């Protein structure tokens, strides 16, 4: 098209372009057109046009110079800078090659001057019409243009419009980075409208998701959008599309276009009494609006018109633009739930939400800061695992769909994959030694060095640099843990397979008995906690503080009372050593290691729970394992080959089982230090007026946080924080499907191989029924008891001895509950997850990966957990 292979124009009906090339508004028009909705013909001048125009006319230097003078505190200086920029744009010359292509596009819309067709020219900035900030009205619109010179003048004004005083101030208020800001322009054939309006797919004032709101006026809709007319108002029931409320507006005159002529005619008394729309037309517009909302995945603000785009054409409804509603009330986070869609962000790709691994520690959508600072670093390291094993990966391998982490499951298997078993074995057989002798000492030394950094005293630039180091360290620690767990990921399934098929017919028993009763840092933490409980029960002053004072006051009294001093020091040592295990990876959520008050609150809850000596329990499991091993070897004495295979598989799996918990215990040690530094950054930004609370920093992206911290004044981020917090709350309320798309991957030969491998590693389950739920059996035994539904550690005090713990997921922070619960049921997880290991170590029946268990089971309901078959019976 050009010697530089630039794309100057894109027609909406020719396909869906990238939003960064045509802006959000034009991108949405193309999506609407691809849906088959009636959209007036249009083409977009891409951001390439803007960039070349700016460079060809030296406007980049003008922008740098004038923006340096822009100061919201000095309106006159800001206005002068904006005016200088506008005049420089208007004086610019369009390169000839670009002009020729755009003229061709214009002729497709306006065949000749006698056709009577007119066009509208609108800006479409790359930051416009986005969820969270619509920038509505911040750029320019020009109507009723019929010649190239007028179109070119409008295009230049649209380019200049992103640099008006108002637009610059708006972006600065939101803290938007202006470097690389660019704008596309839409040239669209005008609809000669008889009726125009807007429709909101939720009630925008109250956030009521059961009502659509439609407003309409006669003629063109510019007066309605600008607020100069009072429109007809309709409220429509979402379910039946019936009109719930309606009142007439008030218009003094009607603005129409006929044969290229703008006409203003007074409104007669008869017109004032008539409704703009018939009931059928209202329902037709509502159906289109709901279709758009469903496809776009969020509540929409839609502009429409009824008329014709050709003087002699038929009259029909047209969709002029659609954008997200950006200011829904915070009181109704459910306002957006009806519009959610679970679509693959990459056409043809298939995704799975694993019940274990990284997704186990991200059961809810991550905060913007974690999603942009930590998660990409972890995923980049994890992406290297499959290629190292000979599996060809398709990028990206991890995505967030409606905020939830999904893993790509359509990787290719080629000839190199035939070496997978040998590569895996070569790495797995030396994994334990590699971790203990090489990686762990290096990791602990690096963490010790990072922990010596004083976050409160450091300058902000050094604090940001320290945070980057913490993010890298935590990503590497997690990656190391995953690599070190490779022996365990294969050894346990392999041992269970060998035992169940070759050994159990001779010896009887259960494979899991041989894989539990090993000491670990998790068990050491339980013993340390038991010592604290026992010491507290023997010290009346300590018990008085724990039982009668809130956590903060209890800590102060324990520290100040001589009789409590030793116990208090033991508590702090326990807190520093074992309290870093968190229910979630996301830095948004604190762990007891973050501060002593939270740790004390957790301890006060736990001391009210029934307590048992963990050393006694561990000794019982060790004795049971050793007895089962002796008996099995004795029974296999007449089968030497099977006996040798059993001893080899048992030795390897027990070596891996003994270190698995330690691997992830140490992997999470850097999380509290990173969160402490983030909160310190938030404290500084809050003190400078960026937002209200240090915790608000979690709702900025990492780039935004760095930018705000590097500026003399960080700007006002309050509206951004509130919008993202509201969106995060909404997303947290969703129930993500296990597969996207829902129908899963096509059943090819390669896919069947993958499914068989997964069944070998983690087992499989069938569908649940009304009285029986199915999941993965992870710890043997059967128990019946009342279900206790617990969603967070703050609820641990509700658990009583004999209860069946039912929870969305169980990460290290949940370990204390396993000493009390009679059984365990989780929404997520599987045989390879953390909680399955701990459940076996505590010897309680457990079934995991029971979809929607926390919703299907009611609190207090009698249930039977069958950890042998993976069944939960509802009584």
Q: Describe it for me?
A:
The structure is a single chain. Helix content is 45%, strand content 15%. The protein is of the alpha+beta class and 875 residues long. α4 runs antiparallel to α6 and α15 runs parallel beside α24. The protein starts with 8 loop residues before the first strand and ends with a strand.
Briefly say what this structure is.
The protein has 875 residues and is α+β, with helices and mostly antiparallel strands.
Give the helix/strand layout.
Layout: E1 9-11, H1 19-34, E2 42-45, H2 47-56, H3 59-67, H4 75-90, H5 96-109, E3 119-125, E4 141-145, H6 148-161, H7 165-174, E5 183-189, E6 192-200, E7 211-218, H8 222-226, E8 232-237, E9 243-247, E10 253-258, E11 261-266, H9 269-273, H10 279-296, E12 300-308, E13 316-324, E14 351-352, H11 368-373, H12 375-382, H13 385-388, E15 398-401, E16 404-408, H14 420-428, H15 431-451, H16 460-484, H17 486-507, H18 521-537, H19 540-548, H20 551-560, H21 565-578, H22 596-606, H23 614-635, H24 640-667, H25 671-687, H26 702-710, H27 718-732, E17 739-740, H28 749-762, E18 772-774, E19 776-779, E20 782-789, E21 804-807, H29 815-818, E22 823-826, H30 834-842, E23 846-848, H31 853-856, E24 862-866, E25 871-874
Parallel strand pairs: 20-21, 21-22, 22-23
Antiparallel strand pairs: 1-2, 2-5, 3-4, 3-5, 6-7, 6-12, 7-8, 8-9, 10-11, 12-13, 14-16, 14-17, 15-16, 18-25, 19-23, 20-24, 24-25
List keywords for this structure.
875 residues, single chain, 25 strands, eight-stranded mixed sheet, 15% strand, alpha+beta, 45% helix
């Amino acid at each position: 098209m050009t010697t530089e292979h630039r794309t100057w124009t894109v027609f909406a009906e020719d396909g869906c372009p990238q939003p960064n090339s045509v802006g959000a508004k034009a991108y949405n028009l193309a999506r609407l057109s691809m849906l088959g909705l009636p959209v007036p013909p249009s083409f977009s001048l891409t951001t390439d046009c803007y960039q070349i125009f700016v460079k060809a006319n030296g406007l980049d230097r003008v922008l740098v110079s004038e923006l340096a003078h822009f100061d919201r505190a000095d309106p006159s200086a800001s206005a002068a800078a904006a005016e200088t920029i506008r005049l420089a744009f208007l004086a610019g010359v369009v390169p000839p090659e670009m002009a020729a292509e755009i003229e061709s596009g214009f002729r497709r819309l306006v065949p000749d001057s006698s056709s009577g067709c007119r066009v509208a020219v609108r800006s479409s900035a790359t930051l416009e019409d986005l969820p969270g900030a619509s920038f509505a009205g911040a750029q320019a619109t020009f109507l009723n243009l019929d010649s190239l010179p007028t179109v070119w003048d409008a295009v230049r004004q649209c380019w200049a419009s992103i640099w008006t005083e108002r637009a610059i101030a708006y972006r600065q208020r939101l803290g938007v980075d202006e470097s690389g800001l660019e704008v596309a322009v839409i040239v669209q054939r005008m609809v000669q409208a008889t009726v125009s309006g807007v429709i909101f797919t939720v009630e925008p004032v109250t956030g009521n998701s059961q009502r659509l709101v439609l407003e309409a006026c006669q003629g063109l809709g510019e007066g309605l959008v600008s607020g100069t007319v009072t429109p007809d108002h309709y409220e429509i029931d979402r379910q039946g599309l019936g009109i719930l409320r309606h009142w007439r507006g008030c218009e003094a005159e009607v603005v129409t276009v006929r044969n290229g002529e703008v006409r203003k005619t007074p409104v007669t008394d008869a017109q004032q009494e008539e409704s703009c729309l018939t009931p059928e037309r209202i329902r037709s517009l509502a159906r289109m609006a709901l279709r758009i909302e469903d496809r776009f995945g969020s509540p929409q603000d839609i502009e429409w018109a009824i008329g014709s785009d050709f003087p002699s054409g038929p009259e029909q409804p047209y969709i002029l633009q659609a954008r997200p509603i950006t200011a829904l009330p915070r009181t109704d986070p459910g306002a957006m739930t009806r519009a959610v869609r679970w679509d693959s962000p990459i056409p043809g790709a298939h995704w799975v939400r694993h019940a274990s691994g990284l997704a186990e520690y991200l059961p809810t959508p991550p905060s913007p800061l974690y999603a942009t600072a930590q998660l990409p670093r972890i995923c980049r390291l994890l992406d290297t695992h499959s290629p190292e094993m000979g599996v060809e990966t398709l990028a990206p391998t991890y995505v967030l769909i409606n905020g939830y982490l999904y893993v790509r499951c359509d990787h290719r298997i080629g000839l190199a994959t035939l070496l997978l078993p040998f590569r895996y074995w070569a790495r797995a057989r030396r994994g334990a030694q590699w971790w203990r002798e090489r990686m762990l000492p290096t990791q602990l030394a690096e963490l010790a060095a990072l922990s010596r950094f004083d976050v409160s005293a450091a300058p902000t630039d050094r604090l940001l640099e320290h945070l980057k180091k913490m993010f890298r360290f935590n990503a590497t620690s997690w990656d190391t843990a995953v690599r070190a767990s490779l022996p365990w990921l294969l050894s346990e399934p392999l041992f269970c397979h060998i035992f169940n098929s070759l050994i159990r017919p001779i010896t009887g028993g259960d494979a899991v008995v041989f894989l539990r009763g090993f000491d670990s840092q998790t068990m050491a933490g339980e013993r340390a906690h038991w010592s604290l409980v026992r010491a507290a029960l023997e010290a009346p002053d300590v018990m008085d503080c724990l039982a009668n004072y809130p956590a903060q006051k209890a800590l102060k009294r324990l520290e100040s009372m001589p009789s409590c001093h030793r116990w208090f020091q033991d508590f702090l040592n326990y807190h520093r050593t074992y309290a870093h295990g968190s229910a979630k990876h996301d830095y948004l959520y604190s762990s007891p290691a973050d501060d002593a008050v939270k740790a004390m609150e957790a301890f006060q809850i736990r001391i009210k729970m029934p307590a048992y000596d963990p050393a006694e329990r561990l000794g019982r499991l060790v004795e049971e394992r050793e007895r089962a091993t002796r008996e099995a070897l004795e029974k296999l004495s007449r089968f030497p080959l099977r006996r040798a295979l059993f001893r080899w598989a048992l030795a390897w799996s027990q070596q891996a089982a003994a270190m698995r918990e330690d691997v992830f215990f140490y992997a999470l040690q850097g999380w509290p230090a990173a969160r402490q530094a983030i909160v310190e950054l938030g404290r500084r930004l809050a003190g400078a007026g960026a937002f209200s609370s240090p915790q608000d920093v979690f709702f900025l992206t990492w780039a935004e946080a760095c930018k705000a911290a590097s500026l003399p004044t960080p700007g006002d981020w309050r509206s951004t924080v509130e919008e993202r917090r509201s969106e995060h709350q909404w997303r947290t309320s969703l129930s993500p499907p296990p597969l996207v798309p829902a129908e899963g991957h096509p059943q090819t030969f390669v896919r069947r191989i993958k499914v068989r491998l997964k069944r070998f590693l983690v087992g499989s389950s069938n569908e649940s029924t009304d009285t029986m739920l199915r999941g993965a059996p992870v710890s043997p035994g059967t128990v019946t008891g009342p279900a206790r539904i617990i969603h967070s550690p703050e609820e641990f005090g509700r658990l009583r001895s004999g209860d069946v713990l039912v929870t969305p997921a169980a990460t290290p922070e949940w370990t204390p509950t396993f000493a009390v619960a009679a059984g365990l049921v989780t929404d997520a997880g599987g045989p390879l997850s953390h909680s399955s290991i701990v459940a076996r170590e505590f010897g309680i029946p457990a079934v995991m990966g029971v979809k929607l268990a926390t919703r299907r089971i009611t609190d207090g309901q009698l249930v039977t957990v069958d950890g042998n078959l993976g069944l939960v019976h509802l009584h």
